[in-house]
Fold this protein.
Amino acid sequence: MHFKTGGCKICEDNCEAGAIDHSKTDETRQLKVGAIVLATGFDLFDSREIPRYGYGRLPNVISALEFERICHASGPTGGKVLTSAGQPPRSVAIVHCVGSRDKNHQEYCSRVCCMYSLKFAHLVKEKTGAEVTNFYIDMRSFGKGYEEFYRRLMSEEVNFVRGKVAEVTNVSRSPEEEGKLIVVCEDTLLGLVRRVPVELVILSAGLKPGADTEKLNQVFGICRSADGFFAEKHPKLAPVDTASDGIFLAGACQGPKDIPDSVAQGAAAAAGALSLIDKGSIVLEPIRARINADLCGGCQICVANCPYTAIEYNSEKGVSEIQEELCKGCGSCVAGCPSGAALQENFEDRQIVSEVEGVLS
Ligand SMILES: Cc1cc2nc3c(=O)[nH]c(=O)nc-3n(C[C@H](O)[C@H](O)[C@H](O)COP(=O)(O)OP(=O)(O)OC[C@H]3O[C@@H](n4cnc5c(N)ncnc54)[C@H](O)[C@@H]3O)c2cc1C
């Protein structure tokens, strides 16, 4: 463990495992490893991208993470749910699917927002007794015990309005709305536009790929799916593997998921990494590329083309070299090589020509 401040150091003296060392500083270490588990998580959708919801503009419109922080005992209000005026709210709106299932932002469902919104509704009721209204498109309570939790909330007299929120405004149209935030929404079950005045609005934003996903993607040479999260090798048969051997995925970096699913995937990824270590050897692809050093001009186009980062440029020899254990034999280097130095084992021109001649003879 590493602490920035010295403190009293009682913990250092008392820790039987000797895990605390106050003299340690930050350091960058290079480790040689045989397997990597990527578990870099997600970023929360920035609700400012939907200005009509008022986040960052209207006081008392808060994000889901801010609400989590407020509820925490070590948070700014000591765990009490309060408005910006320091009073417990008498009415709270929870807006689901902010940025999710939205063609203008993220088309996919973020999976966890329905359930964390229900958790918020329960917390608000428990802590303040306020009237809580959930604005949802569809309720997706998909996991074990989740539907029961949803039903329990309905019995706790939490309101549910089915419809996508059009806007959150502070422009009142009636004395009842004055000084409040008004959530405007088409109630698709009743078939009418509703204006619901509340004192606090929580925006349940969706999950999006982490900001450094692109950078990590380049470092590790793994693919991303259309939604920007890291892509697994096969959605059903290899859900924690990637197209690059030895690199595994766990948690929300692969797509939105809740804690139980992240933990399960983490255990599977660790098992995958251990099985590689346990075997002690790897089986190479029978079809892989090689570079004829005599022909290579050292242009490095193959280095840039290789999706598996399997090619390195040897500056001393002035040629590119294949790392056989990483090569998947995709042929990107062969197709792009201007000097014909990159060759596909068992698929060289002369072999293909011989095969064609054999077929035609
Ligand atoms: C508001 C909110 C409430 C939620 N409530 C619940 C709930 O009640 N129950 C539930 O089951 N789920 C809940 N979830 C979902 C839950 O947060 C996720 O399932 C969980 O965080 C996923 O875990 P993870 O480890 O994959 O990602 P994260 O929790 O995002 O952790 C990833 C970690 O990797 C670190 N990291 C990122 N990039 C790098 C890098 N390049 N190098 C080193 N480290 C890096 C990050 O700093 C972070 O610490 C909630 C989500 C939100 C947004």
Summary: The two ends are 72 Å apart (CA to CA).
